[in-house]
Amino acid sequence: MSSLPIPTVQTAALIENPGPNASVVVRDSVPVAKPGPNEILVKLEYSGVCGSEIRALNGWGVYNPIVGHEGVGTVVQAGDDVGSSLLGQRVGVKWLYSACGDAAGVPACSACCRGFANNCSRQTNTGRHVPGTLQQYVLADARFVTTNFPPTLPSEVVAPLLCAGLTMMGAVGKVDAHVASLNESANEDVWVVVSGSGGGLGHIGVQLASAAKAGRYKVIAIDHGEAKKQLSLESGAHNFIDYTGGDDEVERQVKALTGEGAHAVIVVSGAEAAFRTAPRLVRNMGVIVTVGLPAADFMLPVSAALCSARSLTVTGVAVGTEDQMTQLLALAAEGKVTPKVEVRTLADVPGIIEGLRTDKVTGRIVVKIPE
Ligand SMILES: [Zn+2]
Ligand SMILES: [Zn+2]
Questions:
Q1: How far is the CA of 81 from the centre of ligand 2 (A)?
Q2: What range(s) does the Alcohol dehydrogenase-like N-terminal domain occupy (predicted)?
Q3: Which CATH superfamily is domain 164-316 in?
Q4: How far, in Å, is the centroid of ligand 1 from the Cα of 261?
Q5: Which residues contact 114 (CB under 8 A, 6 or more apart)?
């Protein structure tokens, strides 16, 4: 247990008035919640700030005013039915707040039954259905927090793994499954485009894909500007292409490297232009993996006829499984995944979210939560 008493109010960052006139404010009189059934109260130490939070800012869906879904902290209180085993433990609070898997008397959905609680049709999410991690004390469902971190991993490094890293584990896993189906010879290079390679998710995706399959994947990173170029190349990308050259130029460069186009294109960016370009970069029988979250009414710009004629696969990914989380933490502990982290303060959150909205953030910004 924490030696300090739990306060009744705390500091939090809130999104107010979502939509064109949205603002992000930091307030210091936000009530601290009490854990109910299955719940624990976590005193947060760090929280990552994910690019997907601009959906809440723009009003693209209904979110809690307190967003954030990459929280690391210590359990300071547990609901009556939870028991005391988690008290004092370091835990990770993720986008998946709860899934239907353990609901008493109700059969679990097919995704949960197959071990993919991240695709549960009845899931609830941190920062959406319940307040998120951009506050000092967050409620979490004890059944879905991540525990047992490698002790050598600092909390500010764990934070971006909880959404950014896990999502890219999910995305590279989709590429692996597709490539396994292609019947390529084992010594053939497999070209993987990561579009949006210099952001919080993208650079971890470049690291994971470059390290996968004993280096068999050659990663072409696409993003904009010198900082993102450097991070993409440091993360293991074989080549970097700046998208500001335009679609035709990006396609020309990808084809020059790959011949027919890439085997897989992972669209990490939420920018509509990245989705428009993707079908031009993938070879016949290739796969487009969507990760980014543009506005809900934006449709994928690939014709049904083209999908049929070229035998394209389009698939999406929503974070990853707890097994993938465990594998990712092990990779990080071995130094094979090294998120680029910039630590800032909770007071900086308004500027951080503005930086994400205008695509100015390289790597991941993690907020140190005040004690
Ligand atoms: Zn996220
Ligand atoms: Zn389910």
A1: 22
A2: 36-146
A3: NAD(P)-binding Rossmann-like Domain (3.40.50.720)
A4: 29
A5: none
- Tell the CATH topology of 9-148+340-368: Quinone Oxidoreductase; Chain A, domain 1 (3.90.180)
* 9-148+340-368 against 164-316: fold identical: no
Centre a 10 Å sphere on the Cβ of residue 107 and count the other Cβ atoms it contains: 9
Tell me the C-alpha distance between 355 and 353, whole Å. 5
Quote the ligand 1 centre to 260 CA distance (angstroms): 33
In the block, tokens 């993690």 appear at 366
Block means of pLDDT (10 residues each) for the chain, length 371 residues? 79 97 96 96 98 94 97 97 95 96 76 94 96 98 95 97 98 95 82 97 98 92 97 98 96 97 97 96 97 92 94 96 96 96 97 94 97 92
Task: Determine the 3-state secondary structure of 147 from DSSP.
Answer: coil
Distance 126 CA to ligand 1 centre (A): 10
CA distance 187 to 202: 26
Q: 95 CA to middle of ligand 1, Å? A: 7
What strands, in cross-sheet order, belong to the sheet with 239-242? 239-242, 217-223, 190-195, 262-267, 282-290, 313-316
Residue 1 pLDDT:
45
CA separation for the pair 121, 123 (Å, rounded):
6
Looking at residue 4, what is its pLDDT? 72
Cα(164) to centroid(ligand 1), Å:
6
